[in-house]
Design brief:
The complex is a heterodimer of chains A (359) and B (291).
Chain A: E1 10-19, E2 22-32, E3 37-41, H1 48-56, E4 63-68, E5 71-72, E6 83-86, H2 98-108, H3 113-126, H4 142-154, E7 160-164, H5 172-189, E8 192-197, H6 200-206, E9 209-214, E10 217-222, H7 224-229, H8 234-239, E11 244-253, E12 256-261, E13 265-269, H9 271-274, E14 279-285, E15 291-292, E16 300-311, E17 315-322, E18 327-333, E19 346-351, E20 356-358
Parallel strand pairs in A: 3-8, 3-9, 6-7, 7-8
Antiparallel strand pairs in A: 1-2, 1-4, 4-5, 9-10, 11-12, 11-14, 12-13, 14-20, 15-19, 16-17, 16-19, 17-18
Chain B: H1 10-49, H2 57-64, H3 66-99, H4 102-117, H5 120-131, H6 136-143, H7 157-182, H8 185-193, H9 198-226, H10 230-235, H11 243-252, H12 257-282
Helix pairs in contact in B: 1-12, 2-12, 3-4, 3-7, 3-9, 4-7, 7-9, 8-9, 9-12, 11-12
Classes of the chains: A alpha+beta (359), B mainly alpha (291).
């Protein structure tokens, strides 16, 4: 069998997996293009790991099919799928040295001895740990073990790389550093990658496209920018980044469309945004898009009172109470020049039509 | 030498007082062990070499007379075979227990523990009921016409092995079970994802990682087997006499206490020796477990 080279396309068609009454994966269809980095993002229980395990071949779907490089592999056992996989806790074999760990997939494939030597060394250099071959996994730090796990998954040049929360066990600093390394490694090799995480920042940093999942279903697929700027529902808006969400209804006031919430809060919205929606809606706005609007320079303005002001270093976070007891979170970069309103100050805040999302 | 009390800091004095407190807690146990275990063993040792003056005649006899050497060999042979039997039956069972869903695992663990709690005597007589010439197995086989005269299933090596394997199986299963349950399952998945089939995964990942459990279980079964008494006495014939049976024979039949003491000392040193050998070979296996 001639296997496709790196960067095979992965296609999932209508995957369903139920555990008792729970639909862990519910009609999941998705295509990872050749060389693309796609992340499955969702809270625990959203079905992201189960989906990954179906692709790996460890979980058999009740319905649907998996294609790798155009070949149906739904019934193929995991060891014949030719995938590289990195696990959350690295899953390095503790009884083998680092060299033996990385050589394992090559030995399984009966590679000649000198080729093994040369490829393992190349893999070690790829992850910038050329001198640890003789050590045992537990003699390495978490970050080093993670790199070895990546080296082991890449050494036999798999067509697809699967990663299950590979950075979950690392501390924040190291995680951010590894994200950068993983991304550049993936782009240099051009290997199609399916990645699972519950960390939205990680998903945004790494991915070409992000798949937001909830309760076994795909909520939205898009580039990080798509998801942040144009969430299709409240769940995505809430899960990706921080957002303010006001509940109210759309009304026509004269020739304008307004968002009305509670007692007397009326916020104009652009007619385009509202489309055909009328009645109960949510108005979603990102905290960093709300500005001080004493001079009336924004398309929408509202009066409010600063309830709290929290200093967070690189930015300051305010809570502003509007008419009708609705509150909005406002964040501003901590610029030297900006005067910071104190708690209890009456302020005018504002934003442009394009900053608000009506769902 | 410990420094005098007045030179100690407050913290050191507190630590010392606390250590002393723990010592008082184990004092009763220590007294019991010294009085009822260590002292008698020393007495046995003494009895084997002073008769009444110092002599090694009892040991010389044990090693010179081929009958006793044969008993020693039989003891080792039966212990080894029992260990192998327990390993063959216990390994898959421990694997199954570790893999079973929690509720079924609970039941399986309870069953294994239960077989440990049952009276040894009852278990041995139960085997007698099953295995003897007019026992359950032979009766059925005869009635169904599978055989025409009864199979000799006991008062021989077979009977002893069946009995001892069943009695000692929990000692193999429990340490293996603990190793299996402590093993990271994703290691097997990792092996599969790297291209290894189930057989290769078993041979290169599962088996090596469970070897410490195999070692611990085998040692336990082997050591307990060495001193086994009831099963060879009830299910074995004259050619399955083990060291313990020989010792009992010397104590009750021939009333040769000094020789019995020498045999007991040999058995004890043999057991200790097995443990040291295990420690030498399997103790180092822990190297990669915690570095």
């Amino acid at each position: 069998m001639s296997q496709p080279r790196r960067g095979a396309e992965v296609r999932l068609e209508g995957l369903v997996k139920t555990y008792g009454p729970v639909r862990a994966v519910d009609s999941v269809s998705l295509t990872v293009s050749s060389g693309e980095f796609v992340t499955l993002l969702g809270p625990s229980g959203s079905g992201k790991t189960t989906t990954l395990m179906i692709v790996a071949g460890f979980v058999e779907p009740d319905e649907g099919a998996v294609y790798i490089g155009g070949v149906q592999v739904t019934e193929t056992p995991p060891h014949r799928r030719g995938l590289g996989m990195v696990f959350q806790h690295y899953a390095l074999f503790p009884h083998m040295t680092i060299f033996e760990n990385i050589a394992y997939p090559l030995r399984v494939r009966h590679a000649p001895k000198d080729e093994i030597l040369q490829r393992v060394q190349a893999a070690l250099e790829l992850v910038q740990l050329p001198a640890v071959g003789a050590r045992y996994p537990l003699q390495l730090s978490g970050g080093q073990q993670q790199r070895i796990a990546v080296a082991r998954a890449l050494v036999y040049e798999p067509v697809v790389l699967l990663m299950d929360e590979p950075l979950g066990a690392l501390d924040r600093k190291l995680r951010e550093q590894m994200q950068v390394e993983l991304r550049s490694l993936q782009q240099n090799l051009g290997i199609s990658t399916l990645y699972v995480t519950h960390d939205q920042e990680e998903a945004m940093t790494l991915s070409d496209r992000v798949v937001v999942m909830r309760a076994g279903r795909i909520e939205q697929v898009g580039t990080p920018e798509d998801l942040y700027e144009r969430p299709q529902n409240h769940f995505v808006a809430d899960f990706i980044g921080a957002s303010n969400c006001l509940e109210g209804e759309l009304r026509t006031q004269g020739d304008r469309l307004v968002f009305a919430a509670g007692e007397g809060l009326r916020l104009p919205v652009a007619p385009l945004q509202a489309k055909a929606k009328h009645g109960r809606v949510r108005l979603i706005i990102r905290p960093e898009r709300i500005r001080w609007a004493e001079d009336g320079s924004t398309e929408v303005t509202a009066a409010g009172v600063v309830v709290s002001s929290t200093y967070l270093g690189e930015r300051v976070r305010y809570v502003v109470r509007l008419q009708g007891e609705q509150t909005l979170v406002v964040t501003h970069p901590n610029l030297e020049s900006s005067a910071r309103p104190r708690e209890g100050t009456a302020v005018r805040i504002g934003w442009n039509y394009a900053d608000a999302i009506i769902l | 030498m410990a420094p005098p009390a007045r030179l100690l800091t407050h913290a050191q004095r507190v630590a010392r007082r606390r250590a002393l407190g723990y010592f008082y807690l184990v004092l009763p146990l220590l007294a019991v062990m010294l009085g009822l275990f260590v002292f008698p063993i020393l007495q046995i040792l003494a009895k084997s070499i002073f008769e009444p003056s110092f002599t090694l005649a009892n040991y010389a006899r044990a090693f010179r007379d081929p009958i006793y050497l044969r008993v020693l060999l039989i003891t080792v042979k039966i212990s080894l075979l029992t260990t192998l039997g327990c390993l063959a039956l216990g390994y898959p069972m421990a694997y199954l227990m570790a893999e079973a869903p929690p509720r079924i695992r609970g039941i399986l663990v309870a069953l294994v523990a239960l077989s440990l709690f049952m009276s040894l005597l009852v278990k041995n007589y139960a085997w007698t009921v099953l295995l003897q010439d007019t026992g359950v197995i032979n009766t059925f086989l005869l009635r169904w016409g599978v055989i025409h005269k009864p199979l000799h299933l006991m008062y021989n090596l077979f009977g002893v092995l069946v009995g001892m394997t069943q009695m000692l199986l929990p000692f193999m299963i429990l340490p293996l079970f603990s190793v299996f349950s402590g093993m990271d399952r994703t290691l097997r998945r990792a092996s599969r994802s790297l291209g290894a089939g189930s057989l290769r995964t078993f041979l290169h990942v599962t088996l090596p990682l469970t070897l410490p459990g195999v070692g611990a279980g085998a040692l336990l079964v082997f050591i307990v087997s060495l001193g086994y008494f009831i099963t060879p006495a009830l299910l074995g014939g004259s050619s399955e006499m083990m060291l313990s049976n020989l010792i009992e024979n010397q104590v009750h039949q021939t009333l040769n206490w000094p020789f019995a003491s020498a045999l007991a000392t040999l058995l004890l040193s043999f057991t200790t020796g097995s443990y040291l050998v295990y420690h030498r070979f399997f103790g180092s296996e822990k190297l990669w477990e915690r570095v």
